[in-house]
Design goal:
This protein has 9 helices and 14 strands. It starts with about 35 loop residues before the first strand and ends with a strand. The structure holds adenosine-5'-diphosphate and magnesium ion (MG).
């Protein structure tokens, strides 16, 4: 699970964010402010740990709002689970019987969400594919509780590629939309400074008192390590997709949960993609789509999605940042910074 430390970073004042590859940032300076005025509420939802941090309102107001966010996450999880008795589960059952079923007729809210997901699919030339639910099932990544022991038989993958039976899976998008709705809820309660962090994917609004929110981005192959940090500017979402989120090993090979709809197999070439964007839903889908796009095509797909700030970690260890991301990121280790280069968007 990725994490972020919304308020654990203490940066030397002289540290310039505009410089890439600074070595000085370590965890040694961690600590909470003496005048800590943030309220934190933590719960499990959508298969991940969610942290709601609120700043600048009395603790009881913050707590009430954060518990409403928790309820929202649980409701959305139930509604948007691909199987079961929620709206999407029911839609998928109906789609299995009649592929022409209209999602909006099953549930208006779900219909809007699927329309938005279809728009993202179009923008990415189908690399983001919310209709690959049957493929996710086939691989065994559909259940949040268990991981598969082996890949599916190649014939089964080939059959999916041929038939492409429509089953909706919003796993690459729903968390982002939930985070957006949580932020809207907090704002409606008069909260202007907050972070909603779902397993390291987050959206921040406002500031933490007199300074910006500070975020850590996990190092892909080091569960305890931090690759980089950034400070959010006002209202921004930071979402990462990686091949280390959900994966299993079989016969010495690694298989992960982001699938390439062109091949039916897990994506290759990129280890992680981090996207910084105003809208969490779009950032979530974009991170997934760029993983599929891979090391050559990701800048073109980012441009098609209107995403400007991206950092990718390549399978060969190289790190690439877009010109918009470069001044926002500082690496926790000079070694990471040394591997980084700027890659412009087309
Ligand atoms: P996480 O949810 O772990 O942060 P992602 O946002 O990348 O990771 O979402 C991965 C999930 O998205 C998968 O578990 C699956 O449900 C779904 N998915 C996998 N491949 C694709 C794809 N090509 N397009 C859209 N959704 C996908
Ligand atoms: Mg995603």
């Amino acid at each position: 699970m990725r994490r972020a430390w919304p308020h654990a970073w203490r940066l030397p004042a002289a540290l310039s964010l505009a410089v890439l590859g600074l070595a000085a940032l370590g965890l040694a300076g961690c600590g909470r402010d003496a005048q800590e005025n943030a309220t934190q509420h933590r719960f499990m939802a959508m298969g991940t740990l969610v942290d709601v941090t609120v700043y600048g309102v009395p603790a009881d107001e913050a707590g009430t709002a954060a518990r409403e966010v928790e309820r929202l996450f649980h409701d959305l999880h139930r509604a948007w689970q691909p199987q079961g008795d929620g709206a999407l589960g029911r839609l998928n059952t109906m789609l299995a019987a009649d592929p022409a079923t209209d999602p909006a007729a099953v549930d208006a809210d779900l219909g809007m969400l699927i329309a938005a997901a279809n728009g993202l699919a179009q923008d990415t030339g189908g690399l983001f594919d919310p209709g690959l639910g049957a493929l996710v099932q086939l691989w065994g990544f559909a259940s949040a509780e268990s991981l598969p022991a082996a890949p599916p038989p190649p014939e089964a993958v080939a059959a999916w590629l041929e038939e492409r039976p429509l089953q909706v899976d919003l796993g690459g998008f729903a968390k982002g939309v939930a985070v957006d709705r949580a932020i809207a809820l907090l704002r409606a309660r008069g909260i202007e400074h907050a972070i909603v962090n779902a397993g390291g994917d987050l959206r921040a609004i406002g500031r933490k008192g007199d300074r910006p929110w500070r975020i850590g981005i996990r190092a892909p192959r080091d569960p305890a390590g931090v690759l980089a940090a950034l400070e959010t500017a006002g209202d921004e979402a930071v979402f990462t997709s990686g091949d280390y989120e959900r994966w299993f090993e079989h016969d010495g090979r690694r298989y992960h949960h982001i699938l390439d709809p062109r091949t039916g197999y897990p994506t290759a070439g990129l280890v992680s993609v981090t996207v910084l964007h105003a809208d969490a839903g779009r950032a979530d889908a974009a991170a997934t789509a760029l993983m599929v796009a891979g090391p050559e095509a990701w800048p073109a797909v980012a441009a098609a999605l209107g995403i400007e700030a991206v950092m990718v970690v390549r399978a060969d260890g190289g790190i690439e940042l877009t010109p918009a991301m470069q001044p926002r990121i500082w690496f926790t280790d000079a070694a990471y910074g040394g591997q980084a280069r700027v890659r412009p968007l087309p």
